[in-house]
From TrEMBL:
Pfam families: FecR. Residues 41-128 form the FecR protein domain. It comes from Cognatilysobacter xinjiangensis. This is FecR protein domain-containing protein.
Length: 130
């Protein structure tokens, strides 16, 4: 169930357990599997909820309960040599698993928290904030 179709999506919500909301374009909506995500979207999981998100390059992000994450930047245009992946996690926990961007241009991947920025050099890690 896409939220908005005006902008190209950068990711899809693969699965949801519990209450997960997305703040997109000034509105907040509860999402289900199949929802499309765009740059600047903020994903919030309720306590005990989870969400699995797949980006167009195959990057996987699994959010635990009480997570609050914003997609700050995303670019996957191999023919043009444009890559970028930036998330800001203000609280909660997530498992990140690299897709093509992390393998082809790992220097363009950033996961930020209020106290640290993680540069991706591996393919899978757990990040916790708050």
């Amino acid at each position: 169930m896409p939220l908005f179709a005006a902008e190209p999506h950068v990711a899809l919500v693969k699965s949801v357990s519990g209450r997960v909301t997305v703040m997109q374009g000034g509105t907040s909506r509860e999402v289900a599997s199949g929802a499309q995500l765009q740059v600047a979207d903020r994903i919030v999981t309720a306590p005990g909820a989870t969400a699995a998100i797949v980006f167009t390059d195959g990057t996987m992000l699994t959010l635990g309960g009480g997570a609050d994450v914003q997609v700050r930047d995303y670019a996957f245009q191999p023919k043009a040599g444009k890559y970028g992946f930036s998330l800001y996690m203000s609280k909660g926990a997530a498992i990140y698993e690299s897709g093509k961007i992390g393998k082809m241009a790992p220097e363009t991947v950033k996961v930020e928290t209020p106290k640290a920025t993680v540069g991706v050099r591996g393919t899978r890690f757990l990040v916790e904030a708050g």
